[in-house]
């Protein structure tokens, strides 16, 4: 049963848990990757719904409710999942499962024991896990958005992974790992942060006024200043950037070249109206 796992020329990784349990896994592909995990009898993988790509005949799949995911009724109605899938090897021999990234993303294996048992990730970064991993999704509360400086890391990185197991997360494009020393400062676009350790000091900054953002664009207007010590994983192509570019390519030519055309036209009409009214008032005077 282990033969399919070694059918590619890439050498597999081996993860050893705190209980000395060894779990081999292999990350396949270049852009839209798949992680293939070997499971001994009765071993299991917790994965994101809809992420299972293939599995051996001895693997059974079931859904489980995850109460730690703080999802309200409105989010649930809009399609936010409150469950996970459990893939368990019920056979007598080793089995395997293939978990696929949901987009053009890379899969990062994170041994939480090496990160102090806690790491903050971008929303929906979690893909699957082996052994002791707890995933908590926090809701982005509106009162936090009013004070962007008070939002901090948890205002944007709303998925927390904790425990001592092995977690797999997804990141878009190429991934760079930066190890920040004590007092070392790094400025980064907020959307490019895939994950970081909680030991990093996280400060948010808006680089443009609201009117300027509406007229001239919203790219790179929200940056984060990270101060070490800690580790940060940087993604070159966040999913929302990719989706925006795809959306622009399928719109009309004018909207593709300037997706904020309606805002600019509306602002021009408003300013013209103010100028005309002011001229009439000054003329009557």
Summarize the structure in words.
Keywords: Membrane, Transmembrane, Transmembrane helix. InterPro entries: AIM24, AIM24_sf, Trp_RNA-bd_attenuator-like_dom. 23% of the residues lie in helices and 39% in strands. It has helices at residues 73-77, 142-146, 148-156, 210-216, 239-249, 253-257, 261-284, and strands at residues 13-16, 22-28, 34-39, 44-47, 52-55, 59-65, 83-89, 95-100, 105-111, 118-121, 126-130, 133-137, 159-163, 166-172, 175-180, 185-189, 193-196, 201-206, 222-227, 230-235. The strands form four sheets. A six-stranded antiparallel beta sheet has the order 6-7-4-11-14-9, with no helix packed on it. The longest helix is centred in the last third of the chain and has 24 residues, at 261-284. The protein is elongated and about 95 Å long. It starts with 12 loop residues before the first strand and ends with a helix. Residues 1-10 and 140-151 have low confidence and may be disordered.
Average pLDDT metric:
76
Order of helices and strands: EEEEEEHEEEEEEHHEEEEEEHEEHHH
Main pleated sheet: 6 strands, antiparallel
- Strands of the biggest beta sheet: in what spatial order? 6-7-4-11-14-9
The radius of gyration is: 23 Å
Which of globular, elongated, flat, extended, rod-shaped describes the shape?
A: elongated
Proportion of β residues? 35-45%
Structural class: alpha+beta
How many angstroms does the end-to-end distance come to? 92 Å
Q: Could you state the oligomeric state of the chains shown? A: single chain
Fraction of residues in helices?
10-25%
Tally of strands: 20
Low-pLDDT windows of residues = 1-10, 140-151
Number of helices: 7
